[in-house]
Amino acid sequence: MAPTLELLRKLGDFEFEEHAFGGASIDAHGVALTDETLDACRRADAVLLAAVGGPKWDTTDPNKPRPEQGLLGLRKGLGLYANLRPVKPLPALYDSSPLRRERIEGTDLLVVRELTGGIYFGEKTRTATSASDVCAYTTEEIERIARTAFEAAERRAPAGASERPAKVTSVDKANVLETSRLWRQVVSELHAREFPHVELEHVLVDNAAMQLVSAPARFDVIVTENMFGDILSDEAAMLTGSIGMLPSASLGADDPGLFEPVHGSAPDIAGQGIANPLAMFLSAALMLRHGLGLESEAAAVESAVEGALAGGLRTPDLGGTAGTAQATRTVLEAIE
Fold first, then answer.
1. Is the residue at 13 inside a domain?
2. Is pLDDT at 194 greater than 80 in this prediction?
3. Number of C-alpha atoms within 13 angstroms, CB side, residue 283?
């Protein structure tokens, strides 16, 4: 977070307000998200969130607070129902990917994940010998996330761009789950009614998982429910060579957007000065673009990151030796 605030100060006159969240908030207040922090987020123009969590707070006791509860509470409290994760391996990092260069060349996809419904938010029960989690979706919840995906596909393929026609892949498990059968029906009806010019395909989640590693360039926009999206977006993140490179945006109808790196807090390297700050920088770029409407500043950050990597910058997760401070300095110099 600290290098990212330094980056933002170079780009404009922003007012920052800092609040404890996740494990830090559990230690200070006994809960992962306080009412005060949630109210502050609601008042803000945008929310930039650092990675949270760690083994200190890991527990299977349902009565103990966990950092992830803060994430769910913040998404629900701000009405953030759409999570956007762009995945575009940069040519400079093709050889850092666990997949062969020819498999990932040309990959430029966007995962649109439904954030506030499904099994994560369904009723939960637990006894000494059994447990259950309810997965539930309404037509309204499915339609609004599908609309987000279709509109994103339109923006990514301007009218007349025949070289990249707009395409949405809807991922479900309609051969087994009733929620997925409703999902497929609602997405199909919305497509026919409002977005017939966008190509739509339905793919079962297990097939989608296989195709993400065998032919990722075939995807444009992937839209799916909460748990499937959680898993597939992390799988897609590894196409870049490191989860330390991926930003995300969580958006709602009117409330401030939430912008955060995909990666966790990496407690195994905490305090060593070697964490990759680039996903946080790119999350700030998404905030500038989607949260604050500052397109040129967002593009400047993305160009600086791409230029730094093209110039040879590599943090340890990318096979190099550059620490956090060096990576920050290189990007700031590119900005200047």
1. no
2. yes
3. 32
Domain that holds residue 204: 98-240
Task: Give the residues across from 247 on adjacent strands.
Answer: 261
In a domain, 227, yes or no: yes
Mean of pLDDT values over 162-179: 91
Residue 133: what residue type?
Answer: D
pLDDT at 161 over 70: no
At 101 the three-state DSSP class reads: helix
230 is catalytic: yes
pLDDT-above-70 percentage for the chain = 98
The whole-number pLDDT of residue 99 equals 86
Q: Does residue 221 sit within a domain?
A: yes
The SS3 call for residue 103 is helix
- Determine the Cα–Cα distance for residues 168 and 230; give it in Å rounded to an integer: 18
Q: Which of 10, 88, 173, 255 is catalytic?
A: 173
> Is it the case that residue 286 has pLDDT exceeding 60?
yes
Which one from 10, 88, 133, 234 is the annotated catalytic residue? 234
Is 94 an annotated catalytic residue? no
Residue 108 belongs to a domain with what CATH number? 3.40.718.10
Lowest-confidence segment of 111-125, 199-213, 239-253 by average pLDDT: 239-253
User: Model pTM?
Assistant: 0.83
SS3 content of the chain, % helix, strand, coil (to 5): 50, 15, 35
Total number of domains constituting the chain: 1
CA 308 from chain centre, in angstroms, equals: 22
Q: Of 81, 120, 167, 317, which one is the catalytic site residue?
A: 120
b (16+ CB within 10 A) / e for 113-128: bbbbbbbbbeeeeeee
* Three-class secondary structure of residue 170 per DSSP: strand
Is residue 58 part of the annotated active site? The answer reads no
169 is written with which tokens? Answer: 């892949």
Instruction: Return phi, psi of residue 85, to 5°.
Output: -125, 100
Closest CA relative to residue 85, chosen from 265, 280, 286: 286
Q: Is residue 89 part of a domain?
A: no
Single out the residue of 183, 233, 220, 189 nearest to residue 204, CA to CA.
183
Instruction: For residue 124, indicate whether it is catalytic.
Output: no
Known catalytic membership, residue 120:
yes
> Which amino acid does the sequence have at 326?
Q
